[in-house]
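Study both lines:
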Amino acid sequence: MRVVFDTNVVLDVLLERKPYLQDAATLFAAVEHGWLTGLLCATTITTVYYIGRQKHGRALVHKKLKDLLAMFTVLPVTHPILIEALELDFSDFEDAVLHETVAAADAHGIVTRNEKDFQRSRLRIYSPAELVAVLRALHQ
């Protein structure tokens, strides 16, 4: 199963944000074990760097990003993806870009805590808890 992790789920792990950390960390472990193919939008990497550097400093964020890049496949944001994102009726352009990146990658869906931001999505949207439950059901 190929799933794109929204930036908020990645930041939940990086910043150890409770009460969201448990499900997000479980999903990261599923990627590490090969039960899930974790994908990231290229824009997520720059956002994580910017926010993480403010919280943890440059050296630690570099290490954490290297770990992320070893675990996840990064999907490119291309000119056609940006054009398609502009055509979507999403209130948040960053979410529209993520959505079109996922569509271009033929992934199975997006895992996010901001499901409401993807109400107009034509893709499968999972909350972290929902995706954890799906993975548990598949591996029992």
Remarks:
- The chain has one domain: 2-135.
- Residues 2 and 18 are 26 Å apart (CA to CA).
- The domain at 2-135 is CATH 3.40.50.1010 (Rossmann fold).
